[in-house]
């Protein structure tokens, strides 16, 4: 379909052209202007909280048959609005990621070459019905000098529109182009497809939501995508683990929050330590409400555990369920992770530095941890201040995606009349 | 189509699985092993030069109706084989891009976070009938720890197979997995389509060739692509340009080699300096065999120049033709570049530092130069030692793609028992 026959393509072209012009202006905006816009947007969120809550109530009323979890994600409260506002103010405090000299060198012919961070351009943010994502994503894009087109879930459109109004108020007050933060002009599902096909108009698509949404985006997109596919994370308790440390780390890695991508889904434990430690680990987790799927060797130690199927080890539970396998040393643990893992985040618990190094060096995962919880895979915990998501691909960025990862680079080459031989 | 009904999909799956296993091994290979493989492959290229030349003669004999330029690209000679071998030996001298600590910081909770360069994984290299690309690409992938599947143009298959044999001999001699460098097992065109759809099996596709090939790859690929789309480069001669420098730079930027992507296609010249300088620039280039397409204001200065159409300014000539437009200062030059350019490489010639800064800051292009030729946009000239291509997208890498750009990163996080609050 072309723009004449496909109204969504025409709409995205108009939106993206305005966004591109705004992005060019935003890319050159000095830090104080961007920070002023963030702070003004935070103030506008607070000032218009009654209107945002009213829009949210309309969204909720229009969709009475939602599940409890869906309703919870869709629902805004005073404190959630305050959290969005505070998040924008925190972004204003972060250093400007744009214009950093990433590296610099001089060639024998005298050319000085500088690699400089710059915004990516126009970002298409496609997310499910969690309206607060609109403020977080808009703020991160603004701070990193990118324009953004927000397309939230259909059930959240009124809430997102109200939040968008506050973001635009912030841009206006700071004298920045209002088209830098846009919302989808239509609830039509075809608009998402048009965004995904908008190569040359949108520079990057970031999907945020469940596996269905992300899979659709990755399959259909003609535009580069920075996506979170799957987080099937492992905690490997090595034979030389300090038992109390292993207990504390596993309980946290599995049960702190079970629905986050950095939650541990599978425990690998060395055969040498399983007889003494596995019963304690299981008891700890059972007390926290966790269920189990164990291989035959783990059931030889703890016969009461339910048996795991092959498929269980390939399952991202996102729930209070732990798969357990007994292994024989680091190479076997790495084999298991290569076979079933998603290259997201894996941890080893060990007091043996050589084993830790062997484990880290053998991993292809975005994040490998030694003696720490897999739940640390998070932009805030990495010190990025905030994150727009976690990337599970191999290109551009891996792991938490913060302001720095929302930038690309360009080269400035300073000469004195050089020509190429 | 699935693997059962599509023989190409089954072939690529087999090849890519072997490549993935080889890539995992290569990612951990120490530098001496990789360098030994490169040097042994160079020796094998020299030792098997007669066989390579014979294969090349068969390729040439099998395709008698090629254009002269095509034949030239396809033809191998003793000196071209020597250049390939020397190129591999030069790569062996370059620093290992894998394992570099890109940054490192400690969090308030004591976690030490390291961002470390690592290979991307399995690269699919799709190129036209220039057999030497096989050696260059295989060498760069090997040095950067990536496995590669090479798919050259149909006319070059025997030549590429003979070069591939030398690369495999090098891997074998160094004790590295032979599946790290593979060639397409079939000349079937459907194999290219299967490579482009091999998401999850191939991590990155790099196309190298004409616009037709690159456009097909960018439109069809379900795998991330690092591509060179277009190089419509500008040289802007500012009012404060030193005239002799402008003459030398423009002649080099346009005429050193007209078929390379960094060649200048359009001259922008300030109205203030055009009356005195444009006739000299035109005379210089005309003496070198260049033709022109000039806007009305340029023709007011040099009436003998042919008139440019709007389309001429949007044309990447890759030939001895120069589009010329007269502009009024930096903002007008930037407007022209934004309207017609491809965000590849642009240069300003000026003695005015403020104008140079204004120009650089206003550009979105991958490379902006001050007082130097646009033909410097090249991996070798940037000091990368060698390049696998030039990237024109916004994600992952921009400009010359060398060993560093053939890497991604991962995080190692070192703790002492930390759990997340």
From TrEMBL, chains A, B:
GO terms for biological process: L-proline biosynthetic process. Keywords: Amino-acid biosynthesis, Cytoplasm, NADP, Oxidoreductase, Proline biosynthesis. InterPro entries: Ald_DH/histidinol_DH (IPR016161), Ald_DH_C (IPR016163), Ald_DH_N (IPR016162), Aldehyde_DH_dom (IPR015590), G-glutamylP_reductase_CS (IPR020593), Glu-5-SA_DH (IPR012134), GPR_dom (IPR000965). Pathway: Amino-acid biosynthesis; L-proline biosynthesis; L-glutamate 5-semialdehyde from L-glutamate: step 2/2. Signal peptide: none annotated. Gene3D superfamilies: Aldehyde Dehydrogenase, Chain A, domain 1, Aldehyde Dehydrogenase, Chain A, domain 2. It is found in: Cytoplasm. Its EC number is 1.2.1.41. Residues 6-288 form the Aldehyde dehydrogenase domain. Its main location: cytoplasm. GO terms for cellular component: cytoplasm. It catalyses: L-glutamate 5-semialdehyde + phosphate + NADP(+) = L-glutamyl 5-phosphate + NADPH + H(+). Pfam families: Aldedh. GO terms for molecular function: glutamate-5-semialdehyde dehydrogenase activity; NADP binding. Catalyzes the NADPH-dependent reduction of L-glutamate 5-phosphate into L-glutamate 5-semialdehyde and phosphate. The product spontaneously undergoes cyclization to form 1-pyrroline-5-carboxylate. Belongs to the gamma-glutamyl phosphate reductase family. This is Gamma-glutamyl phosphate reductase.
């Amino acid at each position: 379909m072309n723009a004449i026959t496909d109204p969504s393509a025409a709409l995205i072209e108009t939106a993206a052209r305005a966004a591109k012009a705004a992005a060019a202006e935003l890319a050159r905006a000095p830090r104080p202007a961007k920070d002023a816009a963030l702070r003004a947007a935070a103030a506008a969120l607070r000032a218009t909280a009654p209107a945002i809550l009213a829009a949210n109530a309309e969204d909720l009323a229009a969709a009475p048959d939602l599940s409890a979890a869906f309703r919870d994600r869709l629902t805004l409260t005073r404190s959630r609005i305050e959290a969005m506002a505070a998040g924008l103010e925190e972004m204003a405090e972060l250093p400007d990621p744009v214009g950093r000299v990433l590296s610099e060198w001089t060639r024998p012919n005298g050319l000085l070459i500088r690699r400089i961070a710059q915004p990516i351009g126009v970002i298409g943010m496609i997310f499910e019905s969690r309206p607060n994502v609109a403020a977080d994503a808009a703020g991160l894009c603004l701070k990193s000098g990118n324009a953004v087109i927000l397309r939230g879930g259909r059930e959240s459109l009124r809430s997102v529109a109200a939040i968008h109004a506050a973001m635009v108020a912030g841009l206006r007050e700071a004298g920045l182009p209002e088209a830098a933060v846009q919302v989808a002009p239509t609830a039509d599902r075809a608009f998402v497809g048009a965004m995904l096909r908008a190569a040359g108009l949108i520079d990057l698509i970031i999907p945020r939501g469940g596996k269905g949404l992300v899979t659709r985006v990755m399959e259909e997109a003609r535009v580069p995508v920075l996506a979170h596919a799957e987080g099937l994370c492992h905690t490997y308790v090595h034979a030389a683990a300090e038992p109390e440390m292993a207990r504390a780390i596993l309980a946290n890695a599995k049960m702190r929050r079970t629905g986050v991508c950095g939650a541990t889904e599978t425990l690998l434990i060395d055969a040498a330590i399983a007889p003494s430690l596995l019963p304690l680990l299981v008891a700890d987790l059972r007390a926290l409400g966790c269920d189990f799927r164990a291989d035959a060797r783990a059931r030889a130690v703890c016969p009461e555990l339910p048996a795991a199927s092959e498929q269980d080890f390939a399952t991202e539970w996102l729930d209070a369920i732990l798969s357990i396998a007994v292994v024989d040393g680091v190479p076997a643990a790495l084999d298991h992770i290569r076979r079933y893992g998603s290259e997201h985040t894996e941890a080893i618990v060990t007091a043996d530095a050589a084993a830790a190094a062997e484990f880290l060096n053998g991993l292809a995962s975005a994040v490998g941890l030694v003696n720490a919880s897999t739940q640390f895979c998070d932009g805030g915990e990495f010190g990025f201040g905030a994150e727009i998501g976690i990337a599970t691909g191999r290109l551009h960025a891996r792991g938490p995606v913060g302001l720095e990862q929302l930038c690309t680079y360009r080269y400035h080459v300073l000469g004195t009349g050089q020509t190429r031989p």
